[in-house]
Backbone:
């Protein structure tokens, strides 16, 4: 059916307005979204941010996501100092990213630097993170709950409906027992031939070492498992900066 040009413009403008309206809504995390319908009571953290920080009122709309690809527009029914009650209006399923971009990175001695890196690579679009325990990794403590909160917050900030997967720490040698993408790269500062890391149009993974870099034995082991040595530039980067740069360079 052929539409008249004015009618087509109206429909297109409505479509654009709808997309802009949805993207402008405050986004909150609600992990049980797929099992929920009707009215739901949101948690205290969400209530505090929506009411105290954003000063939202009844009849206003928010967006919820479970971080697994499902989102919902909800209308605020009740908002006070004790509770935030909303009604689910519309649920939408979002396709997963076309390609996986994985980052294997050593835990860092300075926990705050590792947290900063998690935040930034989440915003950039990393889909899965492997915290690595290599020979020169100085910090073994892994704050799963804290790190997961940072990923959730960064995902909401950047409007992601699919949150990155944060795996438990894994020994460097055990990483190769996992089914990994065919496009494999390892960034290091040692001498030797290195390729420039380029954006990939297929699933890929890049490894970044600790403050003291990978050992030669670890590099050799990675190469034996089809990892390509790569450079992240002409300057020596901190590990957390290298993680961010590598995540950025892998994007096509």
Residues:
């Amino acid at each position: 059916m052929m539409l008249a040009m004015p009618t087509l413009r109206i429909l297109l403008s409505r479509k654009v307005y709808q997309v802009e309206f949805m993207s402008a809504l405050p986004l909150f995390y609600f992990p049980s979204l797929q099992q929920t319908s009707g009215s739901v009571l949101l948690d205290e953290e969400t209530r505090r941010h929506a009411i105290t920080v954003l000063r939202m009122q009844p009849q206003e709309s928010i967006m919820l996501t479970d971080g697994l690809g499902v989102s919902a527009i909800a209308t605020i029914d009740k908002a006070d100092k004790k509770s935030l009650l909303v009604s689910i209006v519309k649920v939408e399923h979002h396709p997963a990213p076309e390609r996986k971009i994985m980052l294997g990175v050593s835990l860092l001695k300075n926990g705050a630097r590792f947290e900063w890196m998690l935040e930034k690579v989440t915003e950039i679009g990393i889909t899965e993170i492997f915290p690595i325990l290599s020979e020169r990794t100085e910090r073994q403590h892994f704050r799963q709950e804290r790190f997961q909160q940072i990923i959730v917050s960064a995902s909401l900030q950047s409007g992601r409906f699919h949150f990155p997967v944060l795996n438990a720490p894994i020994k460097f040698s055990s990483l190769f027992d996992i089914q990994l993408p065919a496009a494999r790269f390892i960034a290091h500062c040692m001498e030797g031939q290195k390729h420039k890391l380029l954006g990939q149009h297929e699933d890929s993974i890049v490894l970044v070492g600790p403050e003291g870099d990978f050992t030669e034995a670890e590099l050799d082991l990675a190469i034996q498992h089809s990892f390509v040595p790569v450079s992240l530039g002409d300057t020596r980067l901190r590990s957390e900066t290298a993680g961010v740069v590598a995540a950025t360079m892998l994007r096509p």
Notes: The radius of gyration is 22 Å.
